[in-house]
Amino acid sequence: MDAVFDLDALLSAEEREWQQRARAFAQERLLPVIEEDFEAGHFRREFVKELGDSGFLGMHLQGYGCAGAGAVSYGLVCLELEAADSGWRTFVSVQGSLAMSAIHKYGSEEQKQQWLPGMAAGDLVGCFALTEPQGGSDPAGMTTTARRDGDGWVIDGAKRWIGLASLADVAVVWAKVDDPSFAGGDGGRAVRGFLVPTSTPGFTATPIDGKLSMRASVQCDVALEGVRVGDDAILPGAKGLSGPFGCLNEARYGIVWGAMGAARSCLEAAISRSVDREVFGKPIGANQLIQAKLADMFLEVEKGILLALHLGRLKERGALTPAQISVGKLNSVREALAIAHEARAILGGDGITNAWPVMRHAANLESVRTYEGTDEIHQLILGRELTGLNAF
C-alpha cells in the first residue's frame, strides 16, 4: 500500500524517524494486547511511562522536558498510535494536546515548572475537565462555578466524559467565576481555568462503565463538591472561552491524522482478507466489485493523509485557522468510519470478530466522531465561515 503512494518523499528524515518510532511502539507494545484489553475494558497504566520515554507526551511543545517536534511529526505519531487503537491516541491527545497544552499556553512559569516535566516524562498524568453532563457542544452554558472565598476559590459542579480523570494527578478544570475582576474576555463570559490536584478534597472521578467504544481507555464522571484552591491555581493566560477552545483545536488537529491511522488499519485488513479468502474458486480480491471498493477506500485514506499533511505544514507556519481544522476533523472521521464499515463488509462474518481490528476501530471511531466537536458542530463552523452567518 505504501508503495502506491510515496508519502515518505514528502517528509523530512526527522518526521520519518518519529513515525517509525511510533509505528514500532504500536506494533511491539500495543497490538499484542489491544484486543484482550478492549474485551476486558482494561487500560494499561504501565504504558504511560513508556510513552513518555519515547518522547510522545507533549512532543509538539517547547521546553520543560518536551521534545519540541514539528506539527507533522506529532501528526504522524497520532496516525501510527491510532492505527493500533483510538484509545491510545486519545491518551496522547488528552495528556499532550489538552492538559499539557493548557498549562504550556496559559500557565504561569511556576505552574509550568511544577507540572510539565513530570507530564512529559509520563510520571504525572493530567486531564481536561470541560464537558458537562448536559452536553459538551455549548461550553458557554457550563454550570460548574468557582466562587471567591477569602484568599482562594471554591469550585462546585460536575463534568462528564473526562478522559484519564481517575488516573490523573492534576485536572484542568474550567468554571464560571463570580468575580468580575477575574472574568475577562469573550463577550463577558466569565470562564477561567483552574489547576486542581486530584487529591484535593471534594474532587471525585468515577470511571464510566458500560462503554461499547474506547474500552481500552478511561473516561470518567467528575464531581466537584466544595473543592478549595488558591489564587495560584488559576491559569493566568486563559480568560474566557478562547482558553479551552485553544486547547480543543490542538486536540482536533491530532484527530485529523489519527483517524486516518484507524482507516489505514481497516483498509490493510480488507486487502489482506481479499487476497486470502476464496469464493467461487478464486480470491475475492480478483473480483471487480471488491477491487473497486478497495480502490475507493485507498483514495480516501490518501486524500485524508494529504489533507492532514497540508494542515500540518500550515500549522508549522502559524497559519492554520480553526475553520481549516474543522475541515480536517470532519473529513477524516467521516471517511474513516465509512472505510471501517466497507472493510467490515469485505471481511464478511469474520469482520465482526476480534480476529480482525475492523469492528473495534468502527466502534472507537463512533466516539472520535462525537468528541472534540460533533459532525454537526464542524459543519456549522464551516457554514459560518462560508456565509458569514452564525447558525449556532
Automatic annotation (TrEMBL):
Pfam families reported for this sequence: Acyl-CoA_dh_1, Acyl-CoA_dh_M, Acyl-CoA_dh_N
Xref: InterPro entries: Acyl-CoA_DH_CS, Acyl-CoA_Oxase/DH_mid-dom, Acyl-CoA_Oxase/DH_mid-dom_sf, AcylCo_DH-like_C, AcylCo_DH/oxidase_C, AcylCoA_DH/ox_N, AcylCoA_DH/ox_N_sf, AcylCoA_DH/oxidase_NM_dom_sf
Annotated GO MF terms: fatty-acyl-CoA binding; flavin adenine dinucleotide binding; glutaryl-CoA dehydrogenase activity
Gene Ontology BP term (one): fatty acid beta-oxidation using acyl-CoA dehydrogenase
Tree of life domain: Bacteria
Reaction(s) catalysed by this chain's protein: glutaryl-CoA + oxidized [electron-transfer flavoprotein] + 2 H(+) = (2E)-butenoyl-CoA + reduced [electron-transfer flavoprotein] + CO2
Coiled-coil segments: none
Domain called Acyl-CoA oxidase/dehydrogenase middle: residue spans: 127-227
PANTHER family listed in its UniProt record: GLUTARYL-COA DEHYDROGENASE, MITOCHONDRIAL (PTHR42807)
Stated name of the protein: glutaryl-CoA dehydrogenase (ETF)
Originating species: Agromyces badenianii
